[in-house]
UniProtKB/TrEMBL annotation:
Listed PANTHER family: 3-OXOACYL-(ACYL-CARRIER-PROTEIN) REDUCTASE, 3-OXOACYL-[ACYL-CARRIER-PROTEIN] REDUCTASE FABG
One GO MF term: translation elongation factor activity
The entry's keywords: Elongation factor, Protein biosynthesis
Family assignment from sequence similarity: Belongs to the short-chain dehydrogenases/reductases (SDR) family.
Originating gene: ymfI
Record's keyword annotation contains DNA-binding: no
InterPro entries: NAD(P)-bd_dom_sf, Sc_DH/Rdtase_CS, SDR, SDR_fam
NCBIfam families assigned: EF_P_mod_YmfI (NF047420), PRK07231.1 (NF005559), PRK12826.1-2 (NF009466)
UniProt-recorded name of the protein: Elongation factor P 5-aminopentanone reductase
Length: 255
């Protein structure tokens, strides 16, 4: 491969798994990695049609992609996702733990079932997927793991206590794992977005969104592509000296 090809497709020959990639930030990440030359496994839980749209977008960008259904909060399904990825593309070099859910409400009104659902989706699932992929990365002495948190994982969010707790856990998970697997050539970083225009903001009114944009120093709500560009940078071979870090693309809302 010539030098210009390496510059235009820096992830050529690489293989990525992106969880929760049917829509929103996950979709943008999958497409961005495919544009950089990676083969991408597009994980989804229930949105098969949306996942296939993500695959088609990856293919249009010139990359390879495959949609794989799995509830990654369940151990056997997380393992099957990684097995399907290995069968199709070989050893994964990149894992993006993006899948998650959000709920709002007072802690006093939060049921044990709702708490467990949020912790499972946002904290347990990244553990399960990472545990399944690590033997492959350790064998190759190379890997890039990026975990999606949130500004609420840094600051805490009123009426989002379970979500904040899970996303804060992801930050500690990232820092500890980075120390554990660094000697194996694997970096682990955390991206903690601020307000981004996805389904998670669909419950907000236009006035609420305008208020958040006004409070953000950069003057706007984030886009999925804003987050995808950062994630892609952290997957690059050239990012090898960055690990255990929490980077928050939030337009200056939290500094």
């Amino acid at each position: 491969m010539n030098h210009s090809s390496l510059q235009s497709k820096p992830l050529a020959g690489g293989h990525a798994i992106v969880t929760g990639a049917a829509r929103g930030i996950g979709r943008a990440i999958a497409i961005s990695l495919a544009e950089a030359g990676a083969s991408v496994v597009v994980n989804y839980k229930s949105s098969a049609a949306a996942a296939e749209e993500t695959v088609e977008a990856c293919l249009r960008s010139g990359g390879q992609a495959l949609a794989v259904q799995a509830d990654v909060s369940r151990p056997e399904q997380a393992a099957q996702l990684v097995e399907a990825a290995v069968r199709r593309f070989g050893t994964p070099q990149i894992l993006v733990n993006n899948a998650g859910i959000a709920r709002t409400g007072l802690l006093i009104d939060t049921s044990v079932e709702a708490w467990d659902e949020l912790i499972d989706a946002n904290l347990k699932a990244p553990f399960l997927c990472t545990r399944a992929v690590l033997p492959h990365m350790i064998r190759e002495q190379y890997g890039r793991i990026i975990n999606l948190s949130s500004i609420w994982g840094i600051t805490g969010g009123s009426c989002e206590v379970p979500y904040s707790a899970a996303k804060g856990g992801i930050i500690s998970f990232t820092k500890a794992l980075a120390k554990e697997v660094g000697p194996s050539g694997i970096t682990v970083n955390c991206v903690a977005p601020g307000a981004v225009m996805t389904d998670m903001l669909s419950n907000l009114s236009a006035e609420d969104i305008a208020r958040i944009a006004d409070e953000t120093p950069i003057g706007r709500i984030g886009t999925p592509d804003d987050i995808a560009h950062l994630v892609r940078f952290l997957t690059m071979p050239a990012s090898s000296f960055i690990t255990g870090q929490v980077i928050s693309p939030n337009g200056g809302l939290v500094t």
